[in-house]
């Protein structure tokens, strides 16, 4: 497979860019591959299966005009602003074997790393779904697949506002302890700390030129908005962003090697109401039968905790 198009967004609207990304995915042609580079204004982007009220400091976001959005892929939430560059690799899987798919995605990531190397950012580690320098994360990678079409997308933290990152996210203490760090700020890093000369326009140009040359593409394309406005309407809808659940009443949670799982529910007149499971796991697990059994039963904390732990063990085995 060859990359057919390199597309750069000219909008900094998170909702517009997420809509463009999905529209590009849905309209991929057979054997087509696209590289999409984009930036967004101050935003927290939730993973598909996360609860905004558990992940975001809503009042801080409102006070500082930080948007909240939700993407298609799973994984954890991220803070981003114009000091960050997003990359998306979209392609039609066709009949490729898993080994071929992995090779294709590594080829794309190698292009990103080559651009960073041109700024003397070296010794980059690829650990799980993160890119690290000096054991600190500057890029988180997530995936989404639909109708045999796939997205690999991620962030490149060049010079984001670390104060906003620290205060806009409600990072779970269990998750931090699991990763052996004291705070979210201790875990992430801006690339400018390794090379003060690195800036978004230059990095974007370097990535673009690498892929244009590597795949003999005549020139990059620019896009300013989504064609089908229904995609944009979707990403702006409060229901898509926040879901049907208001602030969660009670939470049982467990951090595992596959992600953080949060079982949330209300207790009304001693009965369990509106149970839901949120997670930053990159695979979507099905808790439908468990939630159906729990809905409407009498609230007894120990029994619920035991039922939750048993279900989680069964699902993850």
From TrEMBL:
One GO biological process term: protein lipoylation
Protein name listed in UniProt: lipoate--protein ligase
GO molecular function: ATP binding; lipoate-protein ligase activity; lipoyltransferase activity
EC category name: ligase
Pathway(s) where this gene product acts: Protein modification; protein lipoylation via exogenous pathway; protein N(6)-(lipoyl)lysine from lipoate: step 2/2; Protein modification; protein lipoylation via exogenous pathway; protein N(6)-(lipoyl)lysine from lipoate: step 1/2
GO cellular component: cytoplasm
NCBIfam families: lipoyltrans
InterPro entries assigned: aa-tRNA-synth_II/BPL/LPL, BPL_LPL_catalytic, Lipoate_protein_ligase_C, LipoylTrfase_LipoateP_Ligase
Species for this entry: Velocimicrobium porci
Catalysed conversion reaction: L-lysyl-[lipoyl-carrier protein] + (R)-lipoate + ATP = N(6)-[(R)-lipoyl]-L-lysyl-[lipoyl-carrier protein] + AMP + diphosphate + H(+)
Bilayer-spanning residue ranges: none
EC number: 6.3.1.20
PANTHER family registered for this protein in UniProt: LIPOATE-PROTEIN LIGASE (PTHR12561), LIPOYLTRANSFERASE 1, MITOCHONDRIAL (PTHR12561:SF3)
